[in-house]
Structure formats: C-alpha cells, structure tokens
Amino acid sequence: MVENASNLLTKKLEWGRLASYLEQSTRYIYYDKKDSAGRYRYYQPAYFKPAVAKRYKKDIDRIFDLYSELVHNLAKYLEQNSKTPKDERDGAWKGAIRAQACDAARPVLPVATTSTVGIFASDKPWRVLSCTCRAIYCLRPT
Fold first, then answer.
1. Predicted model pTM
2. Distance CA 47, CA 40 (A)
C-alpha cells in the first residue's frame, strides 16, 4: 500500500501493469475535504524554498477551491435537472449524481493530488517496482 501518493506517482507505479492496483478514485469521491491540519490532499515537495513553497500552496489551494465550487455546482445542477422521479432518488441515485459531478470536475485537479494505492503482485513485479522507485529517487532534485 502506498499512502499519500501524488497522481503523478500513481501513474508511474501503475505504468508497467505488472500487478493489480486498487486506487482511491477522483471519479467517485469529492477531493475537496481538508485534513486535520486544514490542508487539501496534495503533495508539496520538501525541497521548495520558502517563497516558492508559499506561492505553490497559495496556487494549489486556489485550484482546489475552484474544484470544490465546480464539483458541488455540477452535482446541484445534475440533481435539479435529473429526469428521475423524486420518489426514486435513493442512495444509489445520489451516488450516481456525485460520481457524474466528480468525473466531470476531476480534470481540474492538479497532478499533485494525493491518494492511496493498493498494489497486489507476485515477487517479480515487486522487484521491478523497487528498482523503478530507487531510480526515481536518484533522479529527484537535491
């Protein structure tokens, strides 16, 4: 399991398709909830200089604010314009509305958005993944 992996890292981990992956999907859940520290779910590189880190946080937070406004307005629009009779709007219907709104709004989310990825594999894919991760680590800025 890889927790707090950026969207970019999840794509890199899943690229070889050597294993089975279970990822929190931006298609089905709102990504506008903040954590206990009041932060949205995104990766911020530790090597950023203070001025860059401040600007990065401001810009990414603004993107998440826009996403939040967009996804909730889309859900409200879909709900108000649904042809489903009101007496048939159950939990599954609400989930489908949320999923449609999340799917439409997710391209707005930055590549730094984090999620959790479960990885199920035999021995060989784990060795390949380990080599890939070490190579990525060696290429990082210092």
1. 0.80
2. 19
